[in-house]
Specification:
With 297 residues, the chain is an alpha/beta fold. The chain contains 13 helices and nine strands. Pfam families: Lip_A_acyltrans.
Length: 297
């Protein structure tokens, strides 16, 4: 049933004129803002850490824009399976493709890190269309009910999904074959991760990028796919981080965290994370039971 619903949604979004789709996504921003208080409170709590000098009105305005960006991303995501190669390449500007090419040429695999800015799914589709074998590490996406359909759709887009339960073995195998492993490094509370400085606060961060790079010699390429306007994007890939130039996995993870913070800070209104990242900041006091689960994007 989930595959039938997913197929219906992708067909409907693909048939919707671009201007109309964005109009509806924007029009539903206030609905998103009002009907999902746990998401609203979580975003406000995060912004209190990230922008401590901003007043509440400024933060509320940012939350609305973040929710608008998420609505737009959902519309774009469900259109993806029906986009032609020409449409995709025509919609996305690329900066730094040479950094990925040079990293792959080294022959030890590549760890691509990203964050939930703009349309993060589009970047992976671009890499797959360039002919690289891409493995995306992802857990639940768009709810447990739709996750199998989403993974199937990604397979059809030449993106292989690795679940966190698969462990490091599948990731190591991909890197040994000189393939690309994509890791999202924001948007979760990594209780078993490492501590880094993130927006001026000690934050739990995934240990994977640094540990994997130090163990395999794979280079790390940090990137993002920002939205320039309706149906227009810029995919940015930064120069690779070489693990040989860092004294430890911790130092390498700190560099990844710094790049991620820079990416988010410059486009904070496109950052689509709606759960609290800092446990010391109360995000959703007095929320009903189950609200925290609904807050997960």
């Amino acid at each position: 049933m989930s595959r039938l619903v997913f197929g219906w949604l992708t067909s409907l979004m693909a048939a919707t004129p671009l201007r109309l789709g964005y109009f509806l996504a924007d029009a539903l921003t206030e609905v998103h803002f009002r009907l999902f208080p746990a998401r609203r409170h979580a975003a406000l709590a995060n912004l209190a850490v990230m922008l401590p000098r901003a007043d509440r009105a400024t933060r509320l305005g940012l939350v609305r824009r973040m929710m608008r960006s998420y609505n737009r991303m959902m519309f774009e995501f469900f259109r993806l399976p029906h986009m032609t190669r020409a449409e995709l390449f025509g919609a996305v500007e690329v900066e730094g493709r040479e950094h990925l090419e040079q990293a792959v040429a080294r022959g030890r695999g590549v760890i691509a890190t990203g964050c939930h800015v703009g349309n993060w799914e589009l970047g992976g589709v671009m890499v797959a269309h360039w002919g690289y074998v891409l493995h995306a590490v992802a857990g639940v996406q768009f709810g447990r009910w739709l996750t199998p359909a989403v993974r199937e759709a990604k397979t059809e887009l030449a993106i292989h999904t690795i679940s966190p339960e698969d462990g490091f073995r599948s990731i190591l195998r991909a890197l040994e074959h000189n393939e690309i492993v994509a890791l999202m490094v924001d948007g979760d509370v990594y209780r078993h991760g490492v501590t880094v400085d993130f927006f001026g606060r000690e934050t739990r961060f995934p240990a994977g990028p640094g540990v994997l790079a130090q163990r395999t010699g794979a280079l790390i390429v940090c990137g993002l796919c920002e939205r320039l306007g309706p149906g227009r994007f810029r995919f940015i890939l930064e120069p690779a981080l070489d693990p040989a130039r860092f004294e430890s996995a911790a130092a390498l993870n700190a560099a990844v965290a710094a790049a991620t913070e820079r990416h988010i800070r410059a486009r904070i209104d496109q950052w689509c994370i709606f759960q609290p990242l800092w446990e010391t900041v109360p995000a959703a006091e007095h929320e009903p039971a189950g609200a925290a689960e609904r807050a997960r994007a």
